[in-house]
Predict the structure of phosphoglycolate phosphatase.
Amino acid sequence: MMTDLKAIIFDLDGTLVHSAPDLHAACNVMLAAANRPPITLEQTISFIGNGIEKLVERALRVTGGAPSDIGPHVAEMHRAYAADLTTLTTLFPGVRGVLDGLDLPMAICTNKPETPARDLCDALDLSRYFDVITGGDTTQAKKPDALPLLHTATMLGITAQECLYVGDSVTDFKTARNADVAFAFYTGGYQPSPVQGLRPDETFDAWEGLDLTRFASSL
């Protein structure tokens, strides 16, 4: 149970930023290098949320099958994405206004590898808002394991009961629950449809609608 809100931790892709178009472009570069047909943006969005490796595996699976060793394809995806990280990526409407208005320590906990996560935040002028940015390779586990979120909270100097995690997917929800962290679910992101039985602590479909007053008496 939350004691009082002392920090907010955010997911990145599908929560703060609409990065799917650049991920989609990089994924199709990877597929072309493997002599595979391209996938659609909608398919790419449905594959996001569990890290680059899973995105590559899923893209290969629907275009002819995933080989036992996807390492070379993952490396090609990393190269393509690093070369064109933010050409089509934008903040979701209202994000910057919310971040500007928050007077709490903030962090990012994403399954995107840490280096491209930091590079993306630098390019979009987001880094200045965050005390900590952790990626899918920062710890030995990825979300929905609790470790990345708990590590991020520790880096902020707080406990799980003193923070709120904001995300857009079932993976994010499970991460928060596994870490015993309160969760706010952004339904304007990449989760394709409502999920039965999902009971987040807060739900909002536009950033202007995020209400934090229930989590902190000081807000």
